[in-house]
Each structure stands twice: as structure tokens, then as C-alpha cells.
């Protein structure tokens, strides 16, 4: 897998976390300490789930049945399509419950579930060292984008638009990468 693909996957995977970071950052009760914890949680779980997905995918590919690129591309495209559809849904949720300390882990895992599937399908053919480095890169991209999101939340007044744009962009990137895996 090329560096360009890893960067695009990292950006696409972090779009949910970016949208959530901006949504959380608008909340006046969220202090700097909470923001840092959310950023670290989002980045850590993106790294961990890509890495675990790649390991499980390699194990599955080696010992159970080979995972053709067509199936992986279909799954990644499906995730992208679901992200695009969710971008057009308008969910107004109350952010006050999100300040709870247990939410760091819950939200970190929830925005990273798609990374597990992408790791399983797209990263199962790379070496262990490359998988680890690629996973770190995805985590660092998430860390950077979420940090940027919390800074941007100061200026964001139309959160719904920003969240929709983030999900839409992430979905389009995953859809293109999935189609590339299927046809090329």
C-alpha cells in the first residue's frame, strides 16, 4: 500500500472524529483538559483499531480464507456510502452527556469502528512493521485533525454544516478508495 493511500485512509477515517471534535468543542462546558482527553482517545483508538484489524485480517487471510481485493474494496466502498448517507441525516443530539468521563473511551471506540473494518480489509497484506507504521500514521492524522477541529470550533457557528461536510468528504474518499481496490 502506498503512502498516498494510507494518508487518504487516515483522513477519511478521522472525519467522524473531526466532526465530533467540532461538535464537542462548541459545548461551553468542555474545558481544555476534556478536549485533550478526547483528542488522545480518538487518535489512540484509530491507531489501535487499524492495527488490530490488519492483524486479524492477516490471520484470516493466512489461516482461514484469502480476502480478495474485490471483497475488501466492496466493504470499504460500503462504509463510504454509509458515511455519505449519514452526512445527509440531521441528528440533533444533546452534548451535555458527552462530557461524562466514560465518554472518552466510548466515543473514541465508536468513531473508530470503521477503522477496524478498513484495517481488516485494506491493511492485511502489509508486513507487521508497515502495519504498525501505517497505524501510527492514521492515529497521528486523527490527532492533528481533531486538534485542528477543536481550534476551529471557536469560529464554527453552523455545526450541522461542518459535520455533514466532514462525513461527506470521508465517505467520498472511502468510496473512491474502495472502487480503486475493486477495479485496479
- Provide the helix percentage: over 70%
Report the β-strand fraction as a percent range: under 5%
Number of helices: 7
As residue ranges, the low-confidence spans are 92-96
Number of DSSP-assigned strands: 0
- For the record, give the distance between the C-alpha atoms at the N and C termini, rounded to a whole number: 13 Å
Mean pLDDT reading? 77
**Main beta sheet:** none
Order of helices and strands: HHHHHHH
Work out the radius of gyration.
Answer: 16 Å
Give the overall shape, derived from the CA principal axes.
globular
Structural class given helices, strands, pairing?
mainly alpha
* Structural domain tally: 1
In short:
This protein is mainly α and 184 residues long. It contains seven helices and no strands. The chain has one domain (3-89, 102-183).
Amino acid at each position: 500500500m502506498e503512502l498516498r493511500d494510507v494518508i487518504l485512509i487516515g483522513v477519511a477515517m478521522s472525519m467522524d472524529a473531526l466532526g465530533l471534535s467540532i461538535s464537542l468543542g462548541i459545548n461551553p462546558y468542555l474545558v481544555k483538559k476534556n478536549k485533550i482527553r478526547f483528542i488522545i482517545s480518538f487518535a489512540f483508538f484509530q491507531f489501535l483499531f487499524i492495527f488490530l484489524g490488519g492483524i486479524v485480517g492477516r490471520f484470516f487471510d493466512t489461516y482461514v480464507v484469502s480476502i480478495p481485493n474485490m471483497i475488501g474494496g466492496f466493504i470499504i466502498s460500503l462504509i463510504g456510502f454509509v458515511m455519505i448517507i449519514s452526512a445527509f441525516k440531521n441528528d440533533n443530539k444533546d452534548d451535555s452527556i458527552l462530557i461524562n468521563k466514560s465518554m472518552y473511551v466510548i466515543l473514541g471506540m465508536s468513531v473508530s469502528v470503521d477503522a477496524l473494518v478498513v484495517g481488516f480489509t485494506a491493511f492485511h497484506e502489509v508486513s507487521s512493521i508497515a502495519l504498525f507504521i501505517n497505524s501510527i500514521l492514521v492515529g497521528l492524522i486523527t490527532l492533528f485533525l481533531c486538534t485542528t477541529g477543536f481550534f476551529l470550533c471557536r469560529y464554527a457557528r453552523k455545526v450541522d454544516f461542518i459535520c455533514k461536510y466532514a462525513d461527506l468528504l470521508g465517505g467520498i474518499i472511502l468510496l473512491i478508495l474502495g472502487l480503486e481496490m475493486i477495479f485496479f
